[in-house]
Amino acid sequence: MASSTVTLEKTTTISSGGVDVPSSPTTMRTRLLKKKGRKGGEKGRCCGHKYELVGYEALPEFLKHNEFVLDYYRSEWPIKQALLSIFSVHNDTINVWTHLIGFFVFLALTVCAATMVPMEYEASSSPHIAIFTTSAMANNTGPVNQLMVLIDGRRAVMAMHSYSLRNASMEPALTMTSSPPVVPHHHRRVARWPFYAYLCGAMFCLLMSSLCHLLACHSEHASYVLLRLDYAGITGLIVTSFYPLVYYTFLCDPFHRSLYLGFITASGAAAVAVSLLPVFEAPRLRWARAGLFACMGLSGLVPILHKMLVFGARPEAVITTGYEMAMGACYLAGVVVYATRVPERWMPGRFDIAGHSHQLFHVLVIAGAYAHYLAGLVYLSWRDMEGCSS
Ligand SMILES: [Zn+2]
Questions:
Q1: Where are the domains positioned within the chain?
Q2: Whole-angstrom Cα distance, residue 32 to residue 5?
Q3: Read out DSSP for 265-303?
Q4: Right CATH for 93-115+190-386 from 1.20.1070, 1.25.40, 3.90.1200, 2.60.120
Q5: Residue 185 in marked binding region
Q6: pLDDT by residue (tens digit) across 176-206?
Q7: What's the CA-to-centroid distance between 253 and ligand 1, angstroms?
Q8: Is 65 annotated as a binding residue?
Q9: 365 CA to middle of ligand 1, Å?
Q10: Which of 33, 127, 269, 364 could staple 50 via S-S, CB 3.0–4.6 A?
Q11: What is the value of pTM for the model shown?
Q12: Is 362 annotated as a binding residue?
């Protein structure tokens, strides 16, 4: 079959500092090759057209974010081609997919939690509860594997967590105690909204980030709006990360619960307001952005230290703090990578497609968010078992 090739040229005027320069426009040729009867994996090719990827120097100012990523940019592509570029290779492909996959992972975790963790209210009377423990738990001398099975006649729920107490070896044998129920206050379980608010915050952040990386190349206006949604997503993730920590830790201390929840929510609202300023996305303010989000995250150390002062002897407090430290380490490493732009600053152009700092930052965000999800499960288990008795 004969292949036909139509070559079009699109001239784009590059703005300099927000002002068009009509007298000496820097022109960029974007060839639109329409090819039929030919298959191939040429870069940027989609839906029968080929929108050529361009280098950093050819970008308009609003797309210049990282001078160490030299090539494979999409520049001012139509929205349809930008959407379809999710299936082609460019320097944002991995950024889009890391957080899109992360979004679906958290969606699956939310569905798992909604179907497997008991509801806040039970329609039936008190659930039949069977607690399996290792024999070591009974005398509190060894590692504890606790498998809790809650059966209410309609669903069986298993929540398992394993942790160590002191330093004895693992006891493989399970013993079973089925009555009386161990939950002292099971008329109503602890509120679920802080846990699900966190899951929604994580999903919103991951989805907005993915969308931003996919579509911000379309136009300056799209870039402005999507970057604000991206910043709002990061803020939402940080704010909602506080909710399970503060709500369940200070379940029986309304003053500190309201104080911490109010502080982080107000901080988040202020961060979103500041991020609306156009100057907020300026490349030179990279450290200011990183610093703002890092300070919000680091303020979480206050309720965590408070938790350890009050509940430091309890295994649930130690486990959740461990997860929170893991989350903090991931986020801080992510912030440092994001702001320093390592490794691409060492070898500009070498990591354009894979391995640049923003991709590492995305993976670290997902790892941190997952650690916090595990902490949330322990908080629920702790407060369901004890209510306000501790
Ligand atoms: Zn990103």
A1: 5-87, 93-115+190-386, 122-177
A2: 10
A3: HHHHHHHHHHHTSGGGG-GGGHHHHHHHHHHHHHTTHHH
A4: 1.20.1070
A5: no
A6: 444 444 444 445 689 999 999 999 999 999 9
A7: 37
A8: no
A9: 10
A10: 33
A11: 0.72
A12: yes
